[in-house]
């Protein structure tokens, strides 16, 4: 049975859940395309203000189905390339989505599941959850941006341990290193992620979208260029409705109400 992607909404938060107990929520081309479309649609939907990505059955995702990986060796290389392109499109849709995406990792994430979790803007994990870049164990190299996201968040030596040895690393260690935002009691990852998403959903949406873009491009340009970019963005937002509400609320000593969005 293939993994199904189920979606639900509540108070501006879209929850995407991978359901595939037999394979610990393994994903392939069908799931890549479903998730890509979900991220793109959410990015254009004003009623979606934050996204939570999680897995059912006490595990986030085991990544690619090993049987499918073996079968793919019999496919034409052009077909394998199309599968890779679909994976690339899913990851880029998540990263390009202007809404914050929060991973709720219960139990663990392996292979592409690790890549998918770390591609999110924030990660919540249960105590003892294991993160594994297991590719090398079957003679493969990482995909889905694993080395990019790991190197973005972790020292080179720890990335080398994860990817060259395929050793599981616990959530607590990744929290200490800064790659995981919160570690919670087993069974609590989804609720904690929903709480973070709820906080984002009540925030200034236009500003949050710009902040996500600023974080994504930080380090790609020289400091002077990034300073200029930040300057353009803050001056653009300065005259918007969100800043008007936020500044007024601060001066009036009340909580801001960003629910009407920006014009």
Q: Which descriptors would you attach to this protein?
A:
single chain; 263 residues; alpha/beta; 2-enoyl-CoA Hydratase, Chain A, domain 1; 2 domains; 6-stranded mixed β-sheet; globular; Enoyl-CoA hydratase/carnithine racemase; Enoyl-CoA_hydra/iso; ClpP/crotonase-like_dom_sf; catalytic activity; Enoyl-CoA_hydra_C
If you had to describe this structure to a student in words, what would you say it looks like?
It is globular, with a radius of gyration of 19 Å. It has a 6-stranded mixed β-sheet, sandwiched between helices. Helix 1 (29-44) links the parallel strand 2 and strand 3. It has helices spanning 29-44, 66-72, 77-96, 112-118, 146-153, 156-165, 171-177, 189-201, 205-217, 223-238, 241-251; strands spanning 4-10, 13-19, 50-55, 101-105, 108-110, 122-126, 130-132, 169-170, 182-184. It folds into 2 domains: 4-201, Alpha-Beta Complex (2-enoyl-CoA Hydratase, Chain A, domain 1); 205-251. The protein is of the alpha/beta class. Helix 9 (205-217) packs antiparallel against helix 10 (223-238).
């Amino acid at each position: 049975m293939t993994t199904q992607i189920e979606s639900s909404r509540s108070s501006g938060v879209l929850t995407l859940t991978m359901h595939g107990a037999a394979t610990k929520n393994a994903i392939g081309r069908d799931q890549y395309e479903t998730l890509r479309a979900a991220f793109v649609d959410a990015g254009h939907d004003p009623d979606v203000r934050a996204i939570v990505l999680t897995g059912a059955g006490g595990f986030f995702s085991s990544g690619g189905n090993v049987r499918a990986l073996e079968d793919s060796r019999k496919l034409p290389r052009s077909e394998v390339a199309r599968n890779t392109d679909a994976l690339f499109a899913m990851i880029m849709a998540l990263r390009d989505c202007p809404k914050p995406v929060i991973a709720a990792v219960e139990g663990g994430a392996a292979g592409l599941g690790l890549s998918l979790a770390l591609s999110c803007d924030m990660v919540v994990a249960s105590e003892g959850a294991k993160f594994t870049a297991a590719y090398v164990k079957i003679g493969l190299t990482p995909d889905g941006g694993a080395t990019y996201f790991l190197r973005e968040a972790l020292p080179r030596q720890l990335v080398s341990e994860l990817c060259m040895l395929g050793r599981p690393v616990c959530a607590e260690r990744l929290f200490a290193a800064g790659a995981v935002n919160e570690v919670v009691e087993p069974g609590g990852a989804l609720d904690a992620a929903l709480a973070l998403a709820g906080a984002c959903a009540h925030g200034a949406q236009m500003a949050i979208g710009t902040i996500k873009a600023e974080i994504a491009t930080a380090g790609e340009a020289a400091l002077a260029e990034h300073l200029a970019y930040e300057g353009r963005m803050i001056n653009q937002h300065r005259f918007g409705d969100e800043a008007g509400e936020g500044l007024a609320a601060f001066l009036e000593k009340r909580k801001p109400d960003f629910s009407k969005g920006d014009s």
